[in-house]
Task: structure prediction
Amino acid sequence: MIKKCLFPAAGYGTRFLPATKSIPKEMLPLVTKPLIQYGVEEAINAGCDTIAMVVSKYKKSIEDHFDNNTDIQSSINGTSKENLLNPLNNIIENTTFSYTRQLEMKGLGHAILTGQTLIGDESFAVILADDVCHSQNDSVLSQMMSIHEKYPQHCIVAIEEIPLKNTNKYGVISGEEIENNLFRVDNMIEKPEPKDAPSNLAIIGRYILTPDIFEVIKNTSPSKGGEIQITDALLTLAKKGKVLAYKFDGKRFDCGSIDGFIEATNYFYEREARDEI
Ligand code: G1P
Result:
């Protein structure tokens, strides 16, 4: 059983400036809940009890969010507002949070490698908080956990079909469909131009990785954007038949873009309004 989920959360979030000048992008809320809390809830819902975060010196408010705030707590105790914090308090009480700092921004692969100290020698999940997912039934990570039970020696990436013109925003895979919605990956390229893309199946921010990925990342050279890409490291394992791609059931919002963020805000606002009726 996978118990640990890694959150690479050291990036600057420059697309959302000036909002992200002093607030980490992971703390921007969809309605009243920060992006990162959606991800943490998904990880816990999928069976994780340990959250490992790769942060930077500008991300202290993430640590504070997953800690007690005794002043606020004592001011709302006994009032109807207690309910607003109860779910988060429940998470804090039952989950271990650990943090390490990434000193230089050298890409997603490098961020994941920085997290090795928190993960150790076991398989783990990775959630990119920018990608907020919502499913009617099992969460995307829960769906991937079920695949991991059947294929414990494989890395798994979540994928979705995208318009071909957008391939240069994603890692893109190709492979053979070995089960319904499950592909054995034979090629993967980070942000290819549409003419070079192996398909229109894009990786979204959910991964299950086996611990051998760390050694592979150490031997992976920087590529796209001069950064060490997890897509390149995974390609090394894909060539050995060790990477699966899963076309998940559910909806995903690209909250790293303004349009996706607004779409997600409206979606969750409408859901909450419906629940209150
Ligand atoms: C990262 C990965 C990319 C993946 C994407 C999903 O890119 O490098 O392969 O498709 O996340 O959101 P980023 O969005 O951080 O540039």
Remarks:
- The two ends are 38 Å apart (CA to CA).
